[in-house]
Each structure stands twice: as structure tokens, then as C-alpha cells.
Specification:
Layout lengths: L3 E3 L5 E3 L6 H7 L10 H19 L6 H8 L3 H7 L3 H10 L17 H8 L14 H11 L4 H24 L8 H13 L11 H21 L4
Antiparallel strand pairs: 1-2
Helix pairs in contact: 2-3, 2-5, 6-10, 8-9
Length: 228
């Protein structure tokens, strides 16, 4: 039994340091601990992993480096992906629905301007790694042979969309009548041939500026040969 002492209100309370049930309930945290948002964690891993792939290339990227960049353990990484290849596959799938962006052929817009919008290198965007991520990520995937079939499928679809867009320009009299399929293949070769420019040892900011400058010049040359 415990001894009872009376306080000024003549209320009986336990002696010593033993807390009452009421005090314990007040101190005990209510509700369940907040769970980690798994979708957000996965998105963070994809974002950080993409940066590492672009900076180091596929061969030089390791799970240790990705986990360190994300601030997680390797065990946490493996809760989401079995290997770095699975992460790269997720990063490729996280891209926009189409490899390119096809603007409406607005009256008065120069062809090289339209092409710049298609390939995300129009003058309104700064030459930065963030704006070149689509290109640099494709470059990484070409290094990993297991992803080449997936990339070929992506670009086959993109080439068909690009050819259709060029036919639309031709129908509107914006460009001369051409073999749209051949022109689309040429454009893709011009654009993604830029990925091998000054890659080794080059800072990402430098690579972005050089890539955009090359693409801008190449698209102007291509466009000037199509203007009727």
C-alpha cells in the first residue's frame, strides 16, 4: 500500500516520485509516429541518382555513391531497387511522355526557333545542366547496353512523331516538300550526336553550354536549307 498525504485541497496523492496515471497520459505522445513518405523517398532517390549518373556516367556510378548522395543507407536503397540498373530504368520512365516537344507552327516563327523548341534548346532557356538533363540521361543509357533496346523504342516513336510534325509544316507551306522520315532521322542524328562532344573530364556547366551552342548552330544550318 502507499501512503497518502493530503494537499491543501484535502486531496489524496501518492508520495515520492511515482507519477499518477493522469501525468503519465499527459506525457505520453499521442498517435502513431509519422511514417516516411515512401513515394517522396523514391522520387528523391531517382532525382539524386539521375544527377550521379549524369556526372559520373553509368560505369562509374555505384550504389554506395547514390546512397551517400541521397543521405540513405545501401539497405534503404535496396528496399526500392535491386541494382543501379533498375534505378536508371526508373529515371528513364520518369521523363516526360515524349522525348521531344512539338510546338504549333505559329505564323512568323522562324524554323530554327521552332526546331529549338522541339529539342528544348530555344533561346528562352539558359544553357545549364538542368535544361540538358534529357540529353545527358540518354547518353548515360546508351552506355548501358541493357537499356539500348528501350532507348531505340523511345526514339523510334519520337522519330515518327517528328516526321509527322515536319509533314504538317510542309502542308502549311512552312518548309519545302521533303522526305519527312529521312529529315527526322537526320535531325535526331544531329541532335544526339552532340552528346559525345567534350564529355570526358568536362564540367557539367561547360558541357551544357557547349552542347547548346552546337545544337543552336546545327539547327540553324539545317533550317536554312529547308526555308522555301
Amino acid at each position: 500500500m502507499y501512503q497518502c498525504r493530503r494537499d491543501e485541497n484535502n486531496t489524496c496523492a501518492r508520495r515520492g516520485n511515482v507519477s499518477s496515471n493522469t501525468e503519465e497520459k499527459q506525457k505520453r505522445p499521442r498517435g502513431r509516429p509519422k511514417s516516411i513518405d515512401l513515394d517522396q523517398r523514391q522520387a528523391d532517390i531517382i532525382e539524386a541518382g539521375t544527377d550521379v549518373f549524369i556526372e559520373l556516367g553509368y560505369a562509374n556510378t555505384t550504389v554506395d555513391i547514390i546512397a551517400a548522395r541521397c543521405g540513405i543507407s545501401k539497405r534503404t536503397f535496396y528496399d526500392f531497387y535491386e541494382a543501379k540498373g533498375d534505378l536508371l530504368s526508373a529515371a528513364l520512365k520518369a521523363r516526360s511522355g515524349s522525348v521531344f516537344d512539338f510546338p504549333e507552327a505559329a505564323d512568323g516563327a522562324a524554323l530554327d526557333t521552332l526546331l529549338g523548341q522541339v529539342f528544348y534548346v530555344d533561346d528562352s532557356e539558359a544553357a545549364s545542366p538542368a535544361n540538358m538533363r534529357q540529353y545527358f540521361l540518354a547518353e548515360v543509357a546508351w552506355e548501358a547496353t541493357e537499356f539500348v533496346p528501350q532507348l531505340r523504342q523511345d526514339f523510334d516513336m519520337a522519330r515518327a512523331e517528328l516526321a509527322s510534325w515536319l509533314r504538317g509544316l510542309s502542308d502549311k507551306g512552312r518548309i519545302i516538300s521533303i522526305d519527312a522520315d529521312a529529315a527526322a532521322t537526320m535531325l535526331i542524328g544531329i541532335v544526339f550526336g552532340s552528346l559525345s562532344i567534350d564529355r570526358t573530364g568536362a564540367d557539367l556547366d561547360v558541357r551544357a553550354k557547349r552542347t547548346k551552342a552546337y545544337l543552336g548552330s546545327s539547327l540553324k544550318i539545317f533550317a536554312n536549307g529547308l526555308v522555301p
